[in-house]
Amino acid sequence: MNFDKETQTRILRVASDRKQGRDIEELDDRISHVMDLHPEFEEIWSMGDMAAYPQEINGQIVSPFVHTVLHTIVDSQLRTEQPEFVVETFNKLKGQGMDEHEILHAIIAAFADLHFASFRQGKPFDQLDYQSRLGYLSYEDSE
User: Where are the beta strands (DSSP E) in 1-143?
Assistant: First the structure.
């Protein structure tokens, strides 16, 4: 998935299909799953193109579009096990007791930071840096 108009249109179509109870194809099903994880975005999808702009949600400024694309990218990495270290990190954090959605957000944060820094600098995405950042992630249960 890309951060482009085509993806924005697709996400809005999935939101509409969900609302109308229509069938959803496989990639769209993954987008729908991300939407299930974020019911706080539900009202924003009805705003159409405005959903691409950052919104204040639960006291934080978030772009539902960007957040959904990032979730879908990491979801794809996990399902295809490419790169392998993403699955390894997910399993490590899960084994440490971290909530699955929190794990996704931790991985997404590392991916997004690198993706947008690379994009701004006109450089390719650095897989080794991504692997290194994920390697530092850990969760210690406070109990």
Answer: 55-57, 60-62
Reported pTM: 0.89
Nearest to 87 by CA among 71, 75, 73, 96: 75
Whether the Cβ atoms of residue 134 and residue 113 lie closer than 8 Å to each other:
no
The CA distance from 25 to 126, in Å, is 31
Q: How much is the average pLDDT of 23-38?
A: 92
Token duo for residue 135? 């390697």
In a domain, 67, yes or no: no
Element housing 96 (H / E): none
Write out the two tokens for 56: 């204040």
Q: What tokens does 10 get? A: 């697709």
CA distance 56 to 45: 14
Which residue range forms the structural domain that includes residue 134? 81-143
Q: In whole angstroms, what is the distance from residue 42 CA to residue 119 CA?
A: 29
Considering the domain boundaries, does residue 20 fall inside one? Answer: yes
- CA dist., res. 127 & res. 129, Å (int): 5
**∠58-61-64 over CA atoms, to 5°?**
90
In the block, tokens 């295809």 appear at 80
- In this predicted model, what pLDDT tens digit does every residue of 72-89 receive, in sequence order? 999 999 999 999 999 999
